[in-house]
Amino acid sequence: MNQSTIDRTFKLWDYHTSHNHLLLRSPKSPDSNHTPPANTNIDIRFFGVSYLNIPTLLRGCEIVEANVEKINTIDSLFPNRTAENKIFIIVSAGSRYLVVAVGYEISENDLDIFQTILDRYNL
Question: pLDDT category, 91, cuts 50, 70, 90?
Fold first, then answer.
């Protein structure tokens, strides 16, 4: 089971329907009270998204790839899900949300608020 945990606030920042890419961003805010200061953006990019059920704001973010037991339970909701699509559970503030996607990556950057990492994929 793969797991990533990040203790920052994320927003649903961008979604490109042409390639099914989802971007969750924790924007940089060096003047905030966050310790350590948030001098960079943290971007979580899901690719090959076929389903999502998340709010627009996540306070703290833990991403867990569903284990076999959870997959069998959740698969009844997604009868057409292919093996390449993984089920990711996002835990935030005690609630659980789902993203079904091929995969995800986490990166840090200092992009401007109006720039996203999805731009580099020419979407």
Answer: very high
- Residue 19 CA to chain centroid, in angstroms? 15
- Give the containing element (helix H, strand E) for 70: helix 68-75
Provide the terminal-to-terminal Cα distance of the chain, rounded to the nearest Å.
Answer: 30
Q: Is 43 within 8 Å of 21 (Cβ atoms)? A: no
C-beta atoms surrounding 38 within 10 Å: 17
**pLDDT score for 1:** 42
Domain count, the chain: 1
Copy the structure tokens of residue 6.
């990040």
Range of the domain at 113: 3-121
